[in-house]
Amino acid sequence: MSSFEITARGKTHPGRVRKGNEDALHIDEDSRVFVVLDGMGGAMAGEVASGTARDVIAEYVRERRGDKEARELIEAAIQAANNKVHREAKRRSDRHGMGTTVVACAIDDDHRAIIAHVGDSRAYLWRDGRLQLITRDHTVVADLLSKKIITQSEAEHHPYNNVLSRNLGSKPRAKVDVTDLPLRPGDRLLLCSDGLTGYASSEAIEQTLGGSEGADSIVEDLVELALRGGGGDNVTALVIDTGRTELPQDTQVIRTSGAVAWWRRRDMFLAEARKGGLCDSPVCSVLSPDEALEIVAGNLCEAIFHDLEQTTGINVWTYAENLGKGWFDQEGDYQILRDLIDILHRAARAVLHDIESTGEPYARGLDIAVTRGLTVAEMAIGGLLADRLRQVESELVDLRARKQQAESGEVTAQTLLEQPTVPFMSSTRVEPASPDVLRYLDRARTAAEQTLVRSGNRSGAREFIERAHNAACDPLRPAEIELSGREFLGDTSDETGVSPLFDAIDQARYHHLEAAARLDGDREICAAAA
Length: 530
Ligand code: CA
Hints:
single chain; 5-stranded antiparallel β-sheet; 18 helices
């Protein structure tokens, strides 16, 4: 039912504030090469930089595409563009210091996407309803953030927010990050400038990419999103489609019959939750067993129903946020909440299994919709956890700064940021994971190993766990390794796309575990430093 048909559409717009457009894009469906650039420099230099780089890459690819592998081709084309922009910038004083970002995608005959980038223009992969960032911004703030010198909330309002740590044209040779991933039919790739990501939320981008329309109207909608979000910068979106797969079920049937079938089994859901031990969870300790079932399980059952029917009322996201907030506000332990969610998961699976046994044609689609709902709950709780982590981390940065100040008498986190050459920005410097993280990872690894080995895929399990472990320990190439881990998981997916949803849950769990470990570790450091 599925085959590769690579098509691409792009749109660039000056935005609502700026007069000129320093963004540029290039689409070559024959060579399967796609590029987005975002130029910078005074007067017209930004436009010259991005336009020149685009033309050099386009010409290079056209002339050499028969001689080189896709990866080699795209890297060489970008270096050629760098040379030209660099020479131009040196040759004319009014173009001195000009440069451009670049994000380029080449798709080879084996349907692998080679993604190369310099600067803060990004590539995203949209797969099975989820959006994943493939590139890592080369900005001063992103570097500070990844070294945990500043927090996420500080990063959002940082004065260096738009300062690139790398660009094309400023040096005789460009440092290019290249990653590749095997594509599947139904995947969508998005290349874009920061004028899109700066003015549209990733949730809105994810939803827009999931639309059933073609790439033409999706790029229109994406640009419109950025304009509605303020349009303070030039905006460029380029969408690459790989051919569509059909959705397994008619959503209308799930909204009606599916939702009713779920609601009819409310008592069963509560009974399964009781059997699973919900009433014994410390989260429910202040409630009587009947209250616990009604409030915790009953409300989730209703929230899932609202989401299925797409009617108003408490939805799963709000339910999970309320539950998680209440628990975390009492300084509750993450693992206990995690165990409670597992009980609810198992109860939902029992209900879905019962619906499936009736042989109703919508059962499969309902399974996907409910599982998706439960993934949303995981994400909401993960968000709360991340907030707490940021809070602890910002306290840590303060503590470190104060410690340094006491030692040297002058250096603070702020003065560090203000120095023109910041020592920790060297990209070769690698900070190993802390002993706490490693210890926790080992625990997570053992647990994951047991789960995966039980599922029967022994060698595959080991390989994935190895990769996930490496991803968590290697700050230099996390995206690349995580992608290969995901690719591996993807191999186990079935035609209807149910498995990727379970993969998503596993991924979410894994990240939560890691975050929880860091939270514990940082708390210990805080306590020791106080
Ligand atoms: Ca820009």
